[in-house]
Amino acid sequence: MVRLRLEPRSAPSQPWLLGAPLLALLITILIAVLLFLALGISPVQALGVFFVDPVSTAQGWSELLVRATPLILIALGLSICYRSSVWSIGAEGQYIVGAICAGGVAMHASEQSSRLFVLIVLLAGTLGGMAWASLVAFLRDRYHASEILVSLMLVYVAELLLGYLLYGPWKDPAGYNFPQTITFLDPALLPRMLSGYRIHYGVFAALVLVVLSYLFIFRTLAGFRLQVVGLAPAAARYAGFFVRRSLWTAMLISGALAGLAGALELAGPLAQLTPQVPAGYGYAAIIVAFVGRLHPFGVVASALLMSLFYIGGELAQARLGLPKSFSSVFQGLLLFTLMACDILTNYQIRLVRAAPRLVRSTITPEVAKSGELVQ
Amino acid sequence: MEMTPRLSLAGISKRYGPVTASHDVSLTIMPGEIHGVLGENGAGKSTLMKIVYGAVRPDAGTIQWNGRPVQLSSPREARALGVSMVFQHFSLFESLTVAENVLLGLPANLTLKGVTERLSRLAAEYGLELDPGRPLHSLSVGERQRVEIARALMTEPKLLILDEPTSVLTPQAVEKLFVTLRRLASEGCSLLYISHKLDEVRSLCQRCTVLRAGRVTGECDPREHDNAGLARLMVGAEPQLLERTPSQVKLTDRPALEVRGLCLTSDDPYGTRLVDVTLSVRPGEIVGIAGVSGNGQQELVAALSGEDARADGRFVFLHGKDVTQAPPHVRRARGLRVVPEERLGRGAVPSLALAKNMLLTRNDSIGRFGLLNDKALLESTSSLIARSHVKTSGPGAAARSLSGGNLQKFIVGREVEASPKVLIASQPTWGVDVGAAAQIRANLLALRASGCAVLLISEELEELFALSDRLFVIAQGKLSPGLRIEDASVQQVGVWMSGAWPGAMPTTPTGVRVHG
To answer: How many contacts does A have with B, using Cβ atoms within 8 A?
Structure first.
């Protein structure tokens, strides 16, 4: 008889670190095929809409990168958090507050403002995200409040804050009472790279920050400290690396990146604050970070994939009549299957030919008793 | 009549990937026999014992229990036969209490209350003082071992396997344990006693099997051999001898490390409170601190290293400067280095490569802006591995892939090569094989010769007597008067380890019973 057995590996398997996300993607697609069949949709057509159509036009690529930019930025910050065991899940809130602060500054631009005005807008967003994240760090540091709950609940506060501003003081007087701000003037906006396409220079900012994050995590002492605090708290104390410091560092970095993502979104495709600012990038980035192995380069790949799901979901809504939330189903499936596939990273499956086992009676009381007889 | 062996192993082999843990090992143990298993760390003792205990299945070979072939595929089956084991690496749950941990290994029909009562009775009977209600995470290494021993005895075993059980006991307590073990043997229980301590095996065991690199290198009656002969079988070579030159230190020399009247309440509710600890270590001397684990050693090391800098006042001085509130890296910058008791998790990050683990306490590979110089880091790690004779695949190997002895050689090398002015070494050779222990001890003596002040905290009296110039004893957070090593005797220090030194307040220290 042959059995399967899981045996722990002495070290995580390097091939499976890369292989597990790919296998997870494959399984996700297989499950999706079953779902399509159940819904009576041709899987070939549906998969085409999700995975081929979005990248078959230049417009599609532009949209892919526009969507991927905030995902990359937020996931970079979350990767640093999770590597130092700071479990922030509220990047969405920092993203919203970043957008609000950027918007607050952008409203004051005039036609005469310098083209560099947009830099102040981005800075405001970054600082806003940091400020929102610092609330989490402070409550955790000072009162030992769970950063998981606090960061999540601050998302709702941020959403309400946005709602208050849009329905109240910041409402566009000429906006037919719609809850939205004025459309910002050009000096407050990022220049378009190509006319007719939404792609903006934020994508370069994201790529530069990918490289900087990589250097920070793997090439600096400060990044090393953060990881030691996450991996072995006692070793961190022994070495003199402080949990408090890594908490603040990780939260402020991830807040800054989420805030910057919000500001870029505002100064790029949105150009005004609306109730549609919270698009769920802050949550999707959690999946992006884990699927990307908390590694900056992995984050880029997984953000592109996640972005594909977003666009595919929208196309599927238009062309196949699928609900838009189908892309959320994809995202959730991917995370779950990844968690399952990760077993292969830390364990190996072995085929065990069960030895001809003696019947269980060998260990029944008679045998135990036979020991007493010998005594 | 020829008796049937309680257990006989024949041709047992086990491989882990490319590593041969056991090769063609045979071993026979009679009822009531105390059988020693000698060997260095990595010789395959633990694997062999796990096979007997059913935790590991051999690739080849047969096991006979009372003359019948058996196939042990789980510890549960082994326990049903009457095999019980005290592991060297504890298999206890941090979040549970002592009694709950004991209950877990026992048949399901027992209640926690019943187990607690039996445990208290048994612990008292065998001199293993334990509080069944304490959570495990608050226990020191020594106390945890007591839990393991008590847990094994609860099952009334036919064959008891003990893996290095005495490393955390006072000499008197070792004697008492031996009395217990001999009594168990006389009741018909067979004992497999794993150790690298030759004296113990020679005084306790009637037969012994010596292992080296997974193979049996000898089977003998240890009472008929001397230490050197057994050590040759074990190591394959003569052990390195320690040469200790007479101390050059004068009492008038200015201490490098000084502690004045340190009082500190532990932040762990089950920790030990340090009471009025005063000691000084001068350059060029080794000061030893003896004591049973759990009597304030962890707290003292934390207060000296800076991991616990809560003390309010001026208590700890490095070269005359107050560092009581200074964090670890500041003290390190002033020449204080620490070899912690806990290797994996404190002295090294288990999942990180050795090269990365250098960065915990060494900053010689860090360039401008805190950027790491990977090339320099790999080079310095490689040369440390070579100089310290660390057996590993290279600087990229994860810390947890190393055996205990090899990891300790790496950690000691990392700290010693930073040319410390003061070195605190906590249990530096605990659970380390003979070869590695000799190397580590030689390291400490070399530091002493170069003028470093060394504070050695150890539970092995043999080691303390071999290395120290002066000796203190710690019991219940209090420090005994200092003794010059020439004036100290094992007997006296053993009594002091129970807290009974001249002028001491009559208290019972943690986990120690006063014997005779």
So the answer is: 112
**B168 shares a domain with B74:** yes
Residues B218 and B297 in one domain: no
Distance CA A46, CA A294 (A): 30
Please name the residues in contact with B386: beta carbons below 8 A apart, sequence gap of 6 or more: none
Chain B residues touching A220 at Cβ < 8 A: 369-372
pLDDT of residue A330: 84
Q: Which of the residue ranges A70-74, A122-126, A190-194 would you say has the lowest mean pLDDT?
A: A190-194
The answer to whether A103 touches A263, Cβ cutoff 8 Å, is no
CA distances from A330 to A71, A152, A208, A333, B309 (A): 16, 22, 29, 5, 50
**Nearest Cα residue to B10 out of B58, B47, B50:** B58
Structural domain containing residue B428: 257-351+401-496
| Under 8 Å between Cβ of A95 and A258 | yes
CB contact under 8 A, B31 and A355: no
State how far the Cα of A277 lies from the Cα of B62, in Å rounded to an integer: 70
Task: State the DSSP string of B137-179.
Answer: GG--HHHHHHHHHHHHHHT--SEEEEESTTTTS-HHHHHHHHH
Strands of the sheet containing B19-29, edge to edge, are B19-29, B7-16, B60-65, B68-70
Contact A338, A21 (CB under 8 A): yes
> Distances in Å between the alpha carbon of A279 and those of A47, A91, A103, A306, A362?
24, 12, 16, 13, 64
- In this predicted model, what pLDDT tens digit does every residue of A290-345 receive, in sequence order? 989 899 999 999 999 999 988 888 888 888 888 878 888 888 888 889 888 888 88
CATH code (residue B317): 3.40.50.300
The predicted-structure confidence for B216-259, as pLDDT tens digits, reads as follows 988 888 888 887 788 778 777 655 566 777 777 777 788 999 99
Q: Are residues B68 and B164 in the same domain?
A: yes
Residue B172 is assigned to a structural domain of this protein: yes
Q: Residue B141 corresponds to which amino acid?
A: V
Whole-number percent of chain B with pLDDT over 70: 92
Residues of chain A positioned with their CB less than 8 A from the CB of B31 = 371, 374-375
Rounded-to-integer distance, Cα B433 and Cα B50, Å: 19
Same-domain check for residues B133 and B18:
yes
The pLDDT confidence band at residue A216, using thresholds 50, 70 and 90, is: very high
ipTM of the complex: 0.77
Q: Do B346 and A232 touch (CB under 8 A)?
A: yes
Name the residue of chain B whose CA is nearest to A215's CA.
Answer: B371
Alpha carbon B161 to its chain centroid, in Å, reads 18
Domain membership flag for residue B134: yes
Domains identified in chain A and CATH numbers: 44-342 (1.10.3470)
Instruction: Give the distance from CA B5 to its chain's centroid.
Output: 32
For the record, the structure tokens of B333 come out as 């910058």
Structural domains in chain B (count): 2
Q: Nearest CA of chain A to the CA of B229: how many Å?
A: 34
Across the interface, whether the CB atoms of B372 and A224 are under 8 A apart is answered yes
**Judgement on whether residues B166 and B52 belong to the same structural domain of the protein:** yes
Together in a domain, B120 and B261:
no
